[in-house]
Q: What sequence folds into this?
């Protein structure tokens, strides 16, 4: 086991807790992105480098990752609560470590390109942007990738949390992405395809240096860690968890974590 | 014809480009362009300062996000396109610029029927309506070359979001004397007189027409004031405070009045129990068409004759 297991477990459990205590939140995508965030926040100092969660509805996982890695601390502030810094989608006006407000899909990628252009000119820092598979149906994503590819923007990494589900169903039924890896490659990106839950692979691919922008297709399972949530569209959108569901989810996550030690 | 109001060869877009070129020594900034540098007055700027231009190709939504992201690294960024195409990026501006308080200046050209021959697809008429609807933004519209230079310098000094409108057709000079520096939320009371009968209030290049009308009224002995609004948002309440009880106010804009300057002013007068008669020189909830600026201004009732006639119209 590598050094990220503890973080991954925490992120999953804390995401579920935030959603349960807050009364609502996006479960499936928070669980699918947990390992990606676990590595990113563990590996990179976020003063010098920038991490943008463009699929902003997975905010619970972002807040949990930031908390684990001590970028923020919060007591009993409620997710999505009135007056809470843990806004429904990440807000720059509430948390200093949030780079740009997300929640309107696709925008985070364009902002990340802008940041990377500035950092490239200044000769400092890396920029990472996490996108969802439904999200990349937005045209702005491909506009941004085309511009990044044209400019051979580096260091710049886009990570696709490819969990196969979106709001109205499976991505393959709503609007298939077809050969997404080929598409990214054709746009000038150095392409990797990995298991998005294998933190050692995520770490390895994020350690590579390239002189081109990097696109990582991370195959994930929506709802990963909670068997009755996995691959189910009803666990995409904002849901309210019952006490029983909460306890069952946390128990499964903990069991999964223990068995991997 | 009044020599002071002869049309220059240049237009507001030309002067915007000149102002940027002039400011490069003093100020750090980038321009994010979407393949319209030539059409927005920036050909000269691109030639001399190409290293400051981030060319995105025809991709306004991405361009707006890129401008926001680039500004986060520490330099003001100008997002540059036609006003109508800027609408494609409105939602991105809403979240990534205004909500995020990014140091982005949104420079929009081809405003109004002044955009001319390209026709309806290029003529922005909703510009005041749409951009003033958002919080955390200054919306500025200079009237001529001198005013444009002041506006551009001002917008690069402030750190919050600004929308700046320019124009395509040759503009008429409004300021003989130097135009004063821009100040937050302040209009310029260009022509002011005691106990005015007619007050003409407006913004942008169309104020060249308004100045002609004002001069004509004055020459006939009508006590006439002229206000250069400059800042659509925040709107200078002094305008309605000072003139709320004049006989007639003529509100002049090259765009929709129903959600633009006419809407702003009538609301303010209502809130302050103003008693004046307010007339609108504006585009009346219809799209434009091809034509020269002067032909269109005549057909749609936006030229100095129309403003003059509106000022003199008998009340029922």
A:
């Amino acid at each position: 086991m590598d050094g990220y297991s503890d973080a991954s477990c925490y992120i999953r459990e804390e995401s579920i807790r935030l959603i349960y205590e807050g009364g609502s939140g996006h479960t499936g995508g928070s669980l699918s992105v947990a390992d990606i965030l676990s590595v990113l926040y563990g590996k990179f100092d976020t003063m010098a480098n920038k991490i943008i969660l463009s699929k902003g509805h997975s905010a619970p996982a972002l807040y949990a990752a930031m908390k684990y890695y001590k970028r923020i601390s919060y007591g009993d502030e409620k997710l999505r609560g009135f007056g809470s810094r843990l806004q429904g989608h990440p807000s720059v006006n509430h948390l200093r470590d949030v780079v740009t407000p997300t929640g309107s899909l696709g925008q985070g990628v364009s902002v990340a390109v802008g940041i990377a252009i500035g950092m490239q000119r200044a000769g400092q820092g890396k920029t990472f942007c996490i996108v969802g598979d439904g999200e990349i149906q937005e045209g702005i994503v491909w506009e941004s990738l085309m511009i990044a590819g044209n400019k051979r923007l580096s260091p710049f990494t886009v990570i696709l949390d490819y969990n196969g589900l979106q709001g109205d169903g499976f991505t393959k039924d709503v609007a298939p992405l077809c050969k997404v890896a080929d598409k990214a490659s054709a746009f000038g990106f150095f392409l990797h395809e990995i298991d998005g839950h294998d933190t050692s692979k995520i770490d390895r691919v994020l350690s590579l240096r390239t002189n081109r922008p990097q696109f990582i297709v991370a195959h994930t399972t929506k709802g990963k860690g909670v068997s009755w949530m996995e691959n189910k569209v009803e666990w995409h959108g904002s849901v309210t968890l019952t006490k029983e569901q909460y306890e069952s989810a946390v128990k499964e996550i903990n069991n999964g974590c223990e068995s991997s030690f | 014809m009044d020599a002071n109001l002869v049309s220059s060869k240049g237009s507001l877009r030309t002067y915007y480009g000149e102002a940027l070129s002039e400011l490069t020594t003093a100020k750090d900034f980038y321009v994010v362009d979407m393949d319209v540098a030539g059409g927005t007055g920036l050909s000269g700027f691109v030639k001399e300062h190409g290293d400051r231009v981030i060319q995105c190709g025809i991709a306004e939504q991405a361009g707006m996000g890129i401008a926001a992201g680039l500004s986060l690294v520490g330099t003001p960024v100008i997002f540059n396109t036609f006003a109508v195409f800027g609408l494609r990026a409105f939602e991105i501006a809403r979240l990534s610029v205004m909500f995020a308080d990014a140091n982005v200046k949104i420079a929009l050209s081809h405003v109004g029927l002044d955009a001319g021959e390209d026709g309806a697809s290029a003529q922005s008429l909703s510009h005041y309506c749409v951009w003033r609807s958002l919080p955390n933004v200054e919306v500025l519209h200079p009237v001529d070359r001198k005013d444009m230079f002041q506006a551009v310098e001002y917008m690069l000094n402030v750190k919050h979001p600004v929308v700046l409108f320019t124009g395509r057709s040759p503009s008429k000079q409004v300021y003989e004397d130097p135009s004063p520096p821009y100040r937050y939320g302040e209009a310029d009371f260009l022509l002011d007189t005691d106990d005015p009968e007619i007050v003409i209030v407006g913004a942008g290049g169309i104020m060249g027409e308004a100045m002609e009308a004002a001069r004509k009224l004055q020459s006939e002995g009508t006590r006439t004031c002229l206000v250069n609004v400059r800042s659509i948002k925040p709107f200078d309440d002094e305008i309605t405070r000072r003139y709320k009880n004049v006989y007639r106010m003529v509100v002049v804009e090259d765009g929709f009045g129903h959600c633009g300057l006419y809407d702003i002013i009538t609301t303010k007068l209502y809130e302050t129990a103003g008693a004046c008669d307010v007339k609108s020189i504006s585009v009346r909830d219809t799209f434009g068409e091809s034509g020269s600026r002067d032909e269109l201004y005549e057909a749609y009732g936006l030229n100095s004759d129309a403003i003059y006639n509106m000022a003199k119209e008998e009340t029922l």
Notes: The longest strand of chain B covers residues 248-256.
